[in-house]
Write a structure and sequence with these properties.
With 127 residues, the chain is mainly α. The protein has a single domain, classed as Arc Repressor Mutant, subunit A (Orthogonal Bundle), CATH 1.10.10.10. Helix content is 33%, strand content 6%. The protein has five helices and four strands; from the N terminus they run αβααβαββα. The strands form two sheets. It has a two-stranded parallel ribbon. The chain has a two-stranded antiparallel sheet with strand order 3-4. Strand 3 and strand 4 form a beta hairpin. The chain starts with a helix and ends in a 33-residue tail after the last helix.
Protein backbone atom coordinates (compact mmCIF):
# COMPACT_ATOMS: atom_id res chain seq x y z
CA UNK A 1 0.00 0.00 0.00
CA UNK A 2 1.39 3.36 -1.06
CA UNK A 3 0.85 6.80 0.42
CA UNK A 4 -0.28 7.85 -3.05
CA UNK A 5 -3.16 5.37 -3.19
CA UNK A 6 -5.88 8.05 -2.79
CA UNK A 7 -4.41 9.83 -5.82
CA UNK A 8 -4.44 6.64 -7.89
CA UNK A 9 -8.03 5.82 -6.84
CA UNK A 10 -9.21 9.24 -8.01
CA UNK A 11 -7.27 9.05 -11.29
CA UNK A 12 -8.87 5.64 -12.00
CA UNK A 13 -12.27 7.36 -11.86
CA UNK A 14 -11.47 9.76 -14.72
CA UNK A 15 -13.51 8.48 -17.68
CA UNK A 16 -12.16 7.92 -21.18
CA UNK A 17 -12.06 11.13 -23.18
CA UNK A 18 -11.77 13.35 -20.09
CA UNK A 19 -8.76 14.89 -18.34
CA UNK A 20 -7.88 16.49 -15.02
CA UNK A 21 -5.09 18.92 -14.11
CA UNK A 22 -2.48 18.29 -11.43
CA UNK A 23 -3.78 21.33 -9.54
CA UNK A 24 -7.40 20.14 -9.62
CA UNK A 25 -6.30 16.70 -8.48
CA UNK A 26 -4.42 18.23 -5.56
CA UNK A 27 -7.33 20.49 -4.65
CA UNK A 28 -9.88 17.66 -4.65
CA UNK A 29 -7.68 15.50 -2.42
CA UNK A 30 -6.38 18.45 -0.36
CA UNK A 31 -2.78 17.41 -0.96
CA UNK A 32 -0.15 19.31 0.96
CA UNK A 33 2.20 20.77 -1.60
CA UNK A 34 -0.53 21.22 -4.19
CA UNK A 35 0.05 20.44 -7.84
CA UNK A 36 3.69 19.50 -7.27
CA UNK A 37 2.64 16.72 -4.90
CA UNK A 38 0.14 15.48 -7.45
CA UNK A 39 2.93 15.52 -10.05
CA UNK A 40 5.21 13.49 -7.78
CA UNK A 41 2.44 10.97 -7.24
CA UNK A 42 1.84 10.63 -10.96
CA UNK A 43 5.58 10.28 -11.63
CA UNK A 44 5.61 7.36 -9.18
CA UNK A 45 2.63 5.63 -10.80
CA UNK A 46 3.18 1.87 -10.74
CA UNK A 47 2.98 0.24 -14.14
CA UNK A 48 0.54 -2.57 -14.77
CA UNK A 49 -2.07 -1.35 -12.28
CA UNK A 50 -4.44 0.15 -14.85
CA UNK A 51 -3.94 3.73 -13.70
CA UNK A 52 -4.68 6.10 -16.61
CA UNK A 53 -1.73 8.44 -15.94
CA UNK A 54 -2.13 10.05 -19.36
CA UNK A 55 -5.41 11.73 -18.30
CA UNK A 56 -3.65 14.08 -15.87
CA UNK A 57 -2.24 17.28 -17.39
CA UNK A 58 -0.61 20.51 -16.35
CA UNK A 59 -2.26 23.89 -15.88
CA UNK A 60 -3.98 25.04 -19.04
CA UNK A 61 -4.13 21.48 -20.38
CA UNK A 62 -0.43 21.28 -21.21
CA UNK A 63 1.36 17.94 -21.45
CA UNK A 64 4.24 18.34 -19.01
CA UNK A 65 6.00 14.95 -19.11
CA UNK A 66 9.21 14.67 -21.08
CA UNK A 67 9.81 12.65 -24.22
CA UNK A 68 9.29 9.84 -25.12
CA UNK A 69 6.35 9.82 -22.71
CA UNK A 70 4.91 13.11 -24.00
CA UNK A 71 4.33 11.60 -27.44
CA UNK A 72 2.88 8.48 -25.85
CA UNK A 73 0.55 10.59 -23.68
CA UNK A 74 -0.57 12.52 -26.76
CA UNK A 75 -1.28 9.29 -28.68
CA UNK A 76 -3.21 7.77 -25.77
CA UNK A 77 -5.35 10.89 -25.34
CA UNK A 78 -6.04 11.09 -29.08
CA UNK A 79 -7.04 7.40 -29.10
CA UNK A 80 -9.72 8.31 -26.53
CA UNK A 81 -11.07 11.11 -28.72
CA UNK A 82 -9.31 14.02 -26.98
CA UNK A 83 -8.06 16.67 -29.38
CA UNK A 84 -4.42 17.59 -28.66
CA UNK A 85 -3.02 20.65 -30.43
CA UNK A 86 0.65 21.49 -29.89
CA UNK A 87 0.75 19.30 -26.76
CA UNK A 88 -2.24 21.14 -25.24
CA UNK A 89 -5.78 20.01 -24.49
CA UNK A 90 -8.76 22.36 -24.35
CA UNK A 91 -9.78 22.00 -20.68
CA UNK A 92 -13.09 23.77 -21.26
CA UNK A 93 -14.08 20.92 -23.54
CA UNK A 94 -12.46 17.88 -21.89
CA UNK A 95 -12.12 18.71 -18.18
CA UNK A 96 -13.62 16.12 -15.84
CA UNK A 97 -15.20 17.18 -12.58
CA UNK A 98 -15.94 14.42 -10.08
CA UNK A 99 -19.38 14.14 -8.58
CA UNK A 100 -19.42 15.65 -5.12
CA UNK A 101 -21.05 13.91 -2.23
CA UNK A 102 -24.07 15.81 -1.06
CA UNK A 103 -24.23 15.89 2.68
CA UNK A 104 -26.86 17.81 4.49
CA UNK A 105 -26.02 18.87 7.96
CA UNK A 106 -29.15 19.32 9.98
CA UNK A 107 -29.42 19.53 13.71
CA UNK A 108 -31.58 16.82 15.19
CA UNK A 109 -34.49 18.33 17.06
CA UNK A 110 -34.40 17.79 20.75
CA UNK A 111 -37.46 16.23 22.30
CA UNK A 112 -37.64 19.14 24.74
CA UNK A 113 -37.63 21.84 22.06
CA UNK A 114 -40.92 23.46 21.27
CA UNK A 115 -41.86 24.68 17.80
CA UNK A 116 -41.24 28.38 17.19
CA UNK A 117 -44.97 29.12 17.29
CA UNK A 118 -45.26 27.80 20.86
CA UNK A 119 -42.22 29.55 22.29
CA UNK A 120 -43.01 32.23 24.83
CA UNK A 121 -41.48 35.64 24.45
CA UNK A 122 -40.41 37.56 27.51
CA UNK A 123 -41.64 41.07 27.76
CA UNK A 124 -39.11 43.54 28.99
CA UNK A 125 -40.15 45.81 31.77
CA UNK A 126 -38.54 49.19 32.14
CA UNK A 127 -36.29 49.54 35.19
Amino acid sequence: MSSWDPVYRLVKQIPRGRVLSYGALAKILRLRGGARSAGRAMAATPSGKGIPWHRVLGEGGKILVREPYASLQKKLLESEGVSVIEFRVNLKQYLWTPATKRTTKTKPKSAKQKPASEKRTRKRTPN
